[in-house]
Amino acid sequence: MAIIKFNPVTPTLRFAELQKREITQKRPEKNLTTSYSKSAGRNCYGRVTSRRRGGGHKRLLRIVDFKRNKFDIPAKVQAIEYDPGRTAFIALLAYADGEKRYIIAPEGLKVGDKVSSSKKAIDFNIGNAMPLAVIPPATKIHAVELLPGKGAQLARSAGNSIELVNIEGNHAQLKMPSGELRLVSKNCMATIGVVGNAEHSKVVIGKAGRNRWKGKRPRVRGVVMNPVDHPNGGGEAKSKGGGGRQMLVSPWGQLAKGFPTRRKSKESNSLILVRRNGRKFKR
Length: 283
Hints:
mainly beta; CATH 2.40.50.140; Ribosomal protein L2, domain 3; 1 helix; 17 strands
């Protein structure tokens, strides 16, 4: 994957650094796509519950197989495609029985490769899916389930991976991309390899309009607002009493830095051994 820099012939291209996408098929599989309506950050009552969303280019939703529950049937990689709904690329699999499915494309997976999923130990090739219990420790994995049969929820974005540390009893010990150490049932499915398209983080969009295509609206800092609009607003220039010299908070007064937002009563707290800041989780 290559990052392309442009000659500054326009104000946009002066700073833009974009990807040269190595995809083999531009049009998605029709049977594996569906249309959907955008909410623009509004709930069922029309009130904004997620700010700075709206507009954007029309998209088709790709139906990705996160469960990998088509066991012991070999599949061949037919194409590597772009998915507008995620940072990673997706791979189109053609199974031996004629069915086609999309999966997250791991790094190194090419057209013509064969992958499969199974409940028992098989070849530890890139793209193969199997339970954590049969994967050897220190293996890089992605698309990991939190609950058996629910579908992959962990390590699905570009360049991410999880390290399988150990199997203890009925649980597998995982080291997350954030550094967090946690336990997951050893019966959860996982896919071998690292998610591809790791250079996605190096892209420089070059202009605000490219964010509007993604459905992202402009963001205004709280410190430049008036006191009536934001707790950090007000003050003449950068004053000590206001304008952000106090603790930074959300528009509703919740601390924005250093304040733990995870509930202490959450059931899954018992499965977290070490938090991403390196401290043991206090129960």
